[in-house]
Specification:
By secondary structure, the chain is of the alpha/beta class. Helices cover 38% and strands 24% of the residues. 44% of the residues are buried.
Amino acid sequence: MNPPGFPTIPCALTIAGSDSGGGAGIQADLKTFQSLGVHGLTVITCITAQNPDKVAGVREIPPTMVRQQLEAVESYFAPECVKIGMLYSVPVIHEVSLYLARKKEAFVVLDPVMISTSGRALLSTKAIDCLVQEIVPHCSLLTPNLPEAEYLLKKQLSSRERIKSAVRELHDKFGCFVLLKGGHSASSTEVIDIYWDGQTEDILSSPRIKNVQTHGTGCTYASAICAKMATKPEIKTAIREAHSFVHEAIKHSVQSGRATLLHW
């Protein structure tokens, strides 16, 4: 036990996959947590061989090891905020679901990672169904992008009116707060995210930064919200600050090798 007098910082847990390119997944989450003054805890669900152009391979972490990671983290830290990214397989989803069922007071952000930026499917149809049935009921906030929202609702969201309606449909269907991210929209001038909590709507807009092909914005956005909530602000404030954080990270992107990376 450390002697008294050390400063304390909040902690947050990310349950996600590892990105060998360092721009998304666990790596992006940890960088975001650190930048926002939160100690990052990790449970790795799978290992990917990837770069911003492609996912060359994915290997699942054995479910028993996922369980051991969860137990080790919980026994020592008991995080109150959890960000969930790529879970990859049905057995891993089962383990995470059992953990969340015991964390009823935690604020849980689910970034429903289904398809990589390069277009590769990261979850099977069976795993997506399991995610919806076993993970979403434990979530405080769902943060789909437009393709993910279209998959979940089985419809195209080709207009702003449909997108605004979709946020409400997702809330009604899953019973949690929803932040629908608009980075994949057809607009060439602005990015609009829409939040709905069942009573109030919040529209967040920022200018689209042209000629920047980024990787890991969804992971960074969700983990920024999680980090903000670990410091206990009001949820709409956390989302607005996370939206600005991601916009600035894209705006100040840097080059490393052939990759363009978020930077803050």
